Amino acid sequence: MAAAVASQAAIPSQAAVAEQPAFVFTEDNFRAPKLPANLKVVDVPLVEATDAALEGFGYVLHSADERTVEKKNFEIVQWPAKGWRKCDPGCGDEAGTTEGRFEVRWEGDFFYGNNLAVATTNNTYLDGLGALPEVASADEATCAGDGKAILLWMSDYHGDGAQLFFPERRHPFVVCLGPAACGDDVAPADMRAFYVPAGKGVYFHPGTWHNGVYVAKDVIARLGGDKATFLTRQGRVHSRFSASWAEEFGCVLRVPLTL
Predict the structure, then answer these.
(1) Distance (Å, rounded) from C-alpha 142 to C-alpha 148?
(2) Which residues of 105-117 are buried (b: 16+ CB within 10 A; e: fewer)?
(3) Tell me, what's the pLDDT at 82?
(4) How does it assemble (predicted)?
(5) Whole-prediction pTM value?
(6) Domains in the chain, please, with CATH?
(7) Under 8 Å CB-to-CB from 6, ≥6 apart: which residues?
């Protein structure tokens, strides 16, 4: 697949990023981040999600219960030892999974996600925008974007296990993923976008860079309400490690929401 391409000037190197102060993903910062103006735009290629296309990232799901701990095909990571002694076999990965609803909605140019599966109040996120921060509006009448593409200002990964999303109703959606092999040194060019057809879901391997799930405005409108709802299943510990594209690289990732 082609690499993501910056539509403006080159983004900073990882060495330059390491010199910048880290963005702290508090509840307030996640819900209403103070994003800078004049961010560079990096276009992320979109392809249809198939098992071949998702190789290394995860799998397409044909049912919500296709991958579970009980079936022994849902990956939970054994927690690493702090010292030189190894964790005993058969422990350290017993927390299993938690599951619940993941709701997404547009408010003008702002796209929000709410993860009701996790036991934290830091579970409501600004998952993306329909326009650059300096022109984005929460008013549908004055919003600058059409909701057919989304600008991502951050992504994250889970250190304790896999995660899956399956829509409650039949409709397409999009995810943006980066390889777990990147670890903390992920960069915008590592990210790929996948269009999941109606009636399918998606499963990510542990450590895969992602964020929420993205649904075009017109798709949500066709559902007859103001939001789309998914089942999400993930590691119960919910260890989350996040990167701010806006703060660390001075950019946003532009992801189409339709093929």
Answers:
(1) 16
(2) bbebbbbbbbbeb
(3) 87
(4) Homodimer.
(5) 0.91
(6) 27-77+99-256 (2.60.120.480)
(7) 40, 41, 42, 43, 188, 251
